[in-house]
Design a protein that fits this description.
With 608 residues, this protein is of the alpha/beta class. A five-stranded mixed sheet has the order 2-4-5-7-6. A five-stranded parallel sheet has the order 9-8-10-11-12, with helices on both faces. It has a two-stranded antiparallel sheet with strand order 1-3. The longest helix has 87 residues. The chain starts with 14 loop residues before the first helix and ends with a helix.
Length: 608
């Protein structure tokens, strides 16, 4: 078989891979090159001195000449330039051939010495010398197994000289030793060929594994880059979409207030429903960014599942009726340990997903205790999920049987959020499904003892129309200073504030805000609230701008950030500063509620 022929079951060797294997073989040989040559030279001198005193005196001069030739060749082998790791890969075959020539020359020069040693007319000495030569030769050949040509080049001349010398002098003992030496030659070279193949195969496997590992690292790096680029794209797209959406929401709220109790109010309500639907999609993408940023910290405590199940039923009963489906949320009386809002979000995503993919029948939510755990199950009689899609449904934007991206089925992010929240809370999420029969999702939550649960509220959807304004208008005792680089948003925010009798001044950047704060009547009409967009023009951050203004002008007014930013690293930075933040688009109700809470907290801090 040619060395370039592929081994059984293997693909043909890549030329570069074959060159790397040869390089490793050459490197291993040159690593012990000097030691091997010095050992050979010392052995040759020792055997020569031994034979000098036992051979016929007529041959002594020839022995000296032969030993001198061996020493000279060995010295040349030591002194000649050697292979080093700095040698280019493509020069490796030339160095392999050079090494083969050197060891072949050494073996060829050493071969005639056997004629003189075998000529000793002493059977004991002849046997001893023959065994010593074969032992030394065998070890030397084994050291050259990595390079087949070097193994044959060194092994055949030297052992052939011994065999021919023994056969030449004849006699039963010499013939026996010659046969023994011949068998040793064949067996040693055969084993050398096998070992050479094993070494080569091992190196090929090593380099292939290294190549696969490198490819895996590249794929992981590419996946990480793609994930980072996706996150950046979502953040940028979300921010750019939220800006005009925020302005539309504010203008719509102001318009709804103006058209209150008039027939045109219904058109405003329809407009705001469309705005809310788009805002919900953007909020879903925001949830992914917030989870990736690590800004969501669970606060587990004992809570009653029935207190979650009741608002869950109220939230989705209308959607179920509209689809002519049954929604059964069964009371359990069980208590679990979890984060109220995050667990509610997981359940609401599962119920919403079940309703979207169920055409007839319905959805059931039940809870059962199992030892120290509680199983919360969401079952449906929907289309089911094929086994090959079982893992993919938890991927972002993947949807079963929705190639046309039907908007009524959402973005395909709900289950991805469920898995992320499950990992965050330590709640195992299991799924079992039968295509055409339905699906069951199970959450495993720690059981808790019944107790007093903190009333921190639930993140329920606002079922009221945003234009009805069922909220309390805050009493600020001053004006609002808004910093936003978008002119439409400044106009919309000013219009909305004016509609509710709130004095607001809107500026584009820090310099304009400073001018407002330095006006002569600034003390007569103080700033009661500083409202900043997070991302301002020319890379400025509203967070830093607001902090600088508060320090420079000694403002006691609270600060509120309003942003369309969803980049994880920026969300993390906002969280670290502890400044309240609202995400665009912001409804009038949400904005007024946030302002009321800020004013209330600030008033309590002032009294303290």
């Amino acid at each position: 078989m040619n060395k370039n022929d592929p081994a059984p079951g293997h693909l043909p060797l890549d030329p570069t891979l074959e060159m790397r294997v040869l390089r490793e073989h050459v490197a291993s040989l040159y690593a012990g090159h000097t030691t091997a040559i010095v050992a050979h030279m010392g052995f040759a001198i020792g055997i020569g001195c031994f034979g000098y005193f036992f051979v016929d005196p007529a041959f002594r001069l020839l022995i000296v000449a032969l030993i001198t030739a061996i020493v000279l060749v060995d010295l040349y082998a030591i002194a000649t330039p050697r292979w080093t790791p700095q040698v280019p890969l493509e020069e490796t075959p030339a160095w392999a051939r050079k090494y083969t020539r050197i060891v072949t020359a050494i073996s060829t020069v050493t071969a005639p010495s056997s004629l003189f040693l075998v000529s000793i007319q002493d059977s004991m000495l002849t046997t001893f010398v023959t065994v010593v030569i074969m032992g030394s030769w065998t070890r030397a050949v084994q050291a050259r197994w990595p390079l087949r040509t070097a193994m044959f080049g060194y092994g055949i001349p030297m052992m052939s000289g011994l065999i021919l010398s023994l056969a030449w002098y004849g006699g039963a003992l010499n013939w026996f030793l010659a046969g023994f030496a011949f068998v040793n030659l064949v067996l040693t070279l055969s084993e050398g060929v096998r070992q050479n193949k094993r070494l080569t195969a091992t190196l090929i496997l090593q380099f292939e594994n290294e190549a696969l590992a490198a490819q895996l690292r590249e794929q992981i790096a590419a996946t990480e880059r793609a994930s980072a680029e996706k996150t950046q794209f979502l953040a940028a797209a979300s921010h750019d979409l939220r800006q005009p959406m925020h302005a539309i929401a504010l203008f719509g709220a102001a318009l709804g207030n103006t058209l209150r109790h008039r027939p045109e109010e219904r058109n405003v309500e329809r407009l705001m429903r469309a705005v809310n639907a788009l805002g919900a999609s953007l909020d879903t993408m925001l949830d992914i960014s917030r989870l990736d940023a690590g800004v969501v910290e669970p606060e587990p405590h004992a809570l009653s599942l029935d207190e979650l199940f009741l608002p869950l039923h109220n939230t989705f009963s209308v959607q179920a009726e509209r689809r002519r489906l049954q929604l059964r949320v069964r009371a359990s009386g069980l208590w679990v340990r979890s984060d109220r809002q995050l667990l509610y979000r997981m359940l609401s995503n599962l119920v919403d997903n079940a309703l979207k993919y169920t055409r007839q029948g319905g959805v059931t939510v039940v809870a059962r205790s199992r030892g120290e755990q509680v199983w919360i199950e969401v079952r449906d009689t929907g289309i089911g999920i094929a086994p090959e899609q079982a893992e993919r449904i938890f991927e972002e934007f993947y949807q079963v049987n929705n190639p046309g991206r039907d908007r009524s089925r959402g973005l395909g992010i709900g289950l991805s959020i469920v898995r992320r929240l499950g990992r965050l809370l330590g709640h195992e999420v299991e799924m079992r499904s039968r295509p055409g029969r339905g699906t069951r999702f199970r959450l495993t939550v720690p059981l808790a003892e019944a107790g007093e649960a903190p009333r921190d509220g639930l993140p329920l959807p606002d079922s009221e129309s945003l234009v009805r304004h069922f909220f309390q208008v805050p009493e600020l005792g001053g004006r609002v200073l808004l910093i936003d680089d978008e002119e439409d948003i400044r106009e919309a925010m000013t219009e909305l504030m004016r509609a509710y009798g709130i004095d607001a001044v809107a500026v584009a950047d820090e310099d304009e805000a400073a001018e407002v704060l330095m006006q002569p009547d600034a003390d007569l009409n103080p700033v009661a609230l500083l409202m900043c967009d997070y991302r301002l023009a020319e890379g400025a951050e509203g967070l830093q701008v607001g902090l600088r203004l508060r320090e420079r002008f000694r403002l006691d007014a609270p600060m509120l950030l309003i942003t369309g930013e969803t980049a994880p690293e920026r969300l993390q930075r906002v969280r670290e500063w502890g400044v309240p933040v609202l995400f665009k688009p912001v409804s009038a109700a949400t904005l007024m509620q946030a302002i009321n809470e800020l004013v209330h907290v600030d008033a309590q801090a002032s009294e303290a």
